[in-house]
Write the structure tokens for this entry.
Amino acid sequence: MEIEVIRSHRRRRTISARFADGIMYIYAPVGISDEKLAEVTRNFKRRFERQKLKKELKIKENLNEVVRRLNEKYFGGKLKIESTKYAVNQHKRFGSCNHRKGTIRISYRLAKMPQWVRDYVIVHEMAHIIQPNHSKSFWDIVSRYKLAERARGYLMAKGFEPEAESDIEEVQ
């Protein structure tokens, strides 16, 4: 990514950025230190890369269609899911569910994994709509997915810690 820094005497404290035609333009005050500017530039670059990744993932596959298919197959089409989308800031979890709002977020990392693993995580999160905890009845629902154990093993091999599962978002 090409970066162009534009320093201005009119700017006093704020730094802003925009991305156009493959170039990231950074607007900064003249007096800002090179170290601070480098740090802010890294953060802007990371943000723009995440935005780009999110757009690419949205174009690549329609998660709402995947959820519809899995809902029909494993839940008889009875679940009401408001939205499902990739999250580019979800690094420690593979998925999260807000069971009250009916929203599911799936980590961008799953886009690089086999489809059956992604489907397992979606079924896992969909099961939270019915059972918002990790009780025995929850795992009975998840086990409807025939590759559940295999997918859990795959995720464990990728560094997922099953003891640390906390993929239910509470509404404030």
Summary: The chain has two domains: 2-59, 62-164. Residues 34-60 form the longest helix (27 residues).
